[in-house]
Amino acid sequence: MTEMRTQIGEMRYNAAEEQFEALVTFHSDAGRVRLASTFKAPVTTPPEVAERVLMSRALGLLDREGTLQARTAPLPSERQRRPRDAAPRKEGFAWLSIFRAA
């Protein structure tokens, strides 16, 4: 099962449109997906409420066809690492014999 982390960028209030706006980033094993999210509400709305609504709306748009999304591959540091074998392979070290002293 894929685990997904969610991150919200800088949230701002657009007074002309009377809405909160933010860029929401979803991090998963497959990479990152960024979506723009909006929430029409008065400026007096608590920031925690606006943040939760922006994130839930972005999640609803995540798999919707026709949604503008920015996708990027995972960074090398974000990729899951496979566990290595506990016992070293014997044939893997044969090439070290060329470094033996005479």
From TrEMBL:
Region listing for Disordered, in residue ranges: 66-88
Basic and acidic residues composition bias: residue spans: 78-88
Q: This chain belongs to which protein, by name?
A: DUF1488 domain-containing protein
